[in-house]
Amino acid sequence: MKSSQSNIKKAKNYLVKNHCVAVPTETVYGLAGNAYSDISVKKIFKLKKRSMNNPLIVHYYNINRLKSDCYINNNFIKLYNKLSPGPITFILKLKKKSKISKFVNCQNKNLAVRFPKHPLFRKLLKNLDFPLAAPSANMSTRLSSVQVSDVSDEFGSKIKYILNGGKCKIGLESTIVNLTSRPSLLRFGGLDISKIEKVLKKKILININSKSKKKMAPGQFSLHYSPGIPLRRNVKIPKKKEAFLLIKKRKYTLKDYYYLSKKKNLNEVAKNLYSMMRKIKKKGYKMIAIEKIPNIGIGKTINDRLNRASKY
Ligand code: TXA
Ligand code: MG
Predict the structure, then answer these.
(1) Whole-angstrom distance, CA of residue 170 vs CA of residue 298
(2) Residue 135: which of 58, 46, 38 has the closest Cα?
(3) Is 55's C-beta closer than 6 angstroms to any atom of ligand 1?
(4) Does ligand 1 have an atom closer than 6 angstroms to the CB of 89?
(5) H or E stretch covering 4
(6) What pTM does this model have?
(7) Which-ligand-closest: CA of 134?
């Protein structure tokens, strides 16, 4: 499409000048900057009001471009071959001679890397001679953005450009696996861990709520993904004035009932969850209730996010 070509050009022009640009991915929108530039990376943290010791994910076009920045291991190659591009982030060892800005990973020895699947984002990455550091395009601790209007609500005119790629297909962030030692899961996400286990032919350690003081991923902190109003889970009957989120059609529905899916399709629930919570907040509700979500497949990720969101 001609218009998409010129939009990619626009995004590129801002990025090469060290500005930040919002980009669509298959999971959620990202707030991207040149991962090799200190100026660019510092801007990302400032815009999001993010703590400088919460590292960013770096997005690459393909494995060849990654090789100058990270050490590649066998588990990574297996997972990359089967599951990339896609909603999975890998933690790898950073090379000393890598050009990655020290602000990206807070001077850590590891780097989070991802190969996003959205065709527009891929085209943009292909056209750049640097990878893109990109956290989710939202103010720190808040809900991620899944469409252009969400990004505008979060940042207004503070960001130079939003590359419009429509509504995100998955709607929840990527699955994060640490591959620097025995494979472990740091964040439930858009890719079901059973797929990862199938490729590796072994179970992976679940390390998402590590009690240890040194948390691997600050996404493990409890206050995160917050809709900004209290949320109650596993609700059968809502209270008065609560917005009630449902995943299966009811015989009788009331005006405060909102459907994330009508047929208990959990992929649909994931895709609609954040945008529905934003809509409800905008309508002026002061509380959200949600019915029980089955803890299977992407349901695990939905429950993880709801659990954190309910800690508000
Ligand atoms: O789907 C996604 O992953 C989206 C899109 C834009 O790619 N990005 C995203 O980024 O969710 P962010 O910054 O919102 O969440 C990244 C998580 C954070 O919890 C961060 O602490 C963790 O990844 N992380 C980043 N680098 C890490 C590292 N070197 N070691 C451990 N955790 C890391
Ligand atoms: Mg985030």
Answers:
(1) 10
(2) 58
(3) yes
(4) yes
(5) helix 2-16
(6) 0.96
(7) 1
